[in-house]
Amino acid sequence: MSSATLHLTTELGHAGWHDHEVRGVVVFELDPRSTTLIDLALLSLGIRADRDEAHLVLTICAQAALNPDPRIPPMKLVRLGATHGGLLSALAAGLVGIERSLVGMSAVTDSAGFLHDFVARVGWDASDDRIHAALQELKRSGAVIYGFGVPGRPVDERARWMSERLDEVLASPRPWWRMYERIRGCLRLPPNLGAVFAAALLDLGCTPDQIGAISCVVNLFPLLGNAHEGARQAPRLLRTLPAETVSYEGPAPRRSPRAARASKES
Question: Which residue range(s) make up the domain with 34?
Fold first, then answer.
């Protein structure tokens, strides 16, 4: 194996004896009185956005996502993981369970990728007819139009609330948001949280892969709450199924040759 094979290049960070650097910033020189968790998340991911706008948008995202009801499927996975281990296994169960799913961080990542690819397909100056035709082409091809459609209820209350708050606090031009609204108008489908997250974060200047990463931060709080409470409670009913709920349907049990011989000898 050549030395070149073992070479790893990173722009992320360097740990020294006396200080740590992240993307060229000396961490210990940051003023803790003015540095927030959002600042550190943006620094870690290399997201260069207007600080005030980023704080507003990401705080609104986190508020919209803060629904830790343990009856929601991802939270059920967290609770189940917590009973078989602890807080970390609970978080792992929840995160792995929503990987490439239509909910959570993966849905936001896919929604951002869809919006990004759609603009590349039709262009910023596309007419409503062109947008409608492109959406119909995608439907005929069987492609998933991420970010639209709400299961189980007529509207996604989180998306509606977040849209209202963003309109209240943001005054700058928002081209991705405008494209999202035009797509919504052509589809005539209610948006879900993934589309709203994606449009808002694209307007911050995030790339789709950065959006997937920052979504882990703002979506972590409901998972963390369930992991903490679930690990503390660790109810037995989540570790074992009641015997009356389990039945075997299959071939009858077979006797081993040794058991058959022993029966004859006795």
Answer: 12-46
